[in-house]
Amino acid sequence: MRKRPLDFPVSITLDTAYVAEQGFGTILIFDTEKDLEPTYIVADDLNDDGLFKMDSRAYNLASRIFEQRPMPQEVIYYGKVTDNLADGVRDLINDVNDDWYWLVSTADEPNIEEVAKVCATNDKMYMVTLNDLDKALALKDILSNNAFVMYHDDPKSYVAEGMAVIMSYNVGGKTAKFKKVEGVREADITNTNLRKLHDVNIQSYVSKKGILQASEGKVLSGEYLDIILGEYWIRDGMESDLIRLAATNDKIPYTNQGIGMLVGTVTARLQRAVRQGIVESGQYRVDFLRREQVPTNDVASRKYNYIEWVAMLQGAIHGGIIKGKLTYDIVNENIENLQNERGNN
Asked: pTM value?
């Protein structure tokens, strides 16, 4: 199925400090070592010798994905022998159904910048784990919203690819930082090198107080992955809602009632974004023009371009300093002093 021009495209501007839900849960494994038509696979297919060679890259990658909890019901497995992953993904998108969002691959040394550009053009997210620290740090000039990169010294870790599963549900409503990827040990990396990775918006996998977790949650542009996912979730869902509105009614009349139908659909999606944890409750506004305010030419051409909305992102807390004080004094009798100390600091 090819993508068609939309009648109600939704444009969203991310005003942050940094530069149809269908498909958001679907991961595509691109195997660059063999040719295979797109095939939906489940966990039991890992035992199929016709599909997977034991301990191959594809087997280890797919195993990591199906090891996560909750486990994905199915994954698309596609193969094409190529040394240019970007061209392979471009051909895939042009030739087959594009109802998937997450791209993971067995490519040994992918051109991440080019793959990210293809993903950006087609609203996909590329999740990739690098095992060479120097090559990871060399990505510092790639400012992409569509590539999430992690470093791990174990070639079989596929930690970023496992993160695709974790981030594929409750889309936009959870942060990638702190998440545990099942089956992956802590990366062997010093704190100094970890800071260097964070400086170029790449994360690793660490243990803090005995808890394994992703060390950060940013895409290469420096924006947080959950913010990018939230934008896609709102835009894709709002476009699908508007298409459904047009398709299930005889028409959307060019009246205040018809305009209200459009505004109501947009508002309903923003309300869902609140429940999803993307937008803060009560912190959104939808503006529009009434029928009598619309130029006659727009009415004649059946175009209504006068709905604008703004919403405050909920965001997430990723760190902070907690202050405490141990004392022999009776705390309740000195609570006012403690409050004054906190205010002064």
From this structure: 0.89
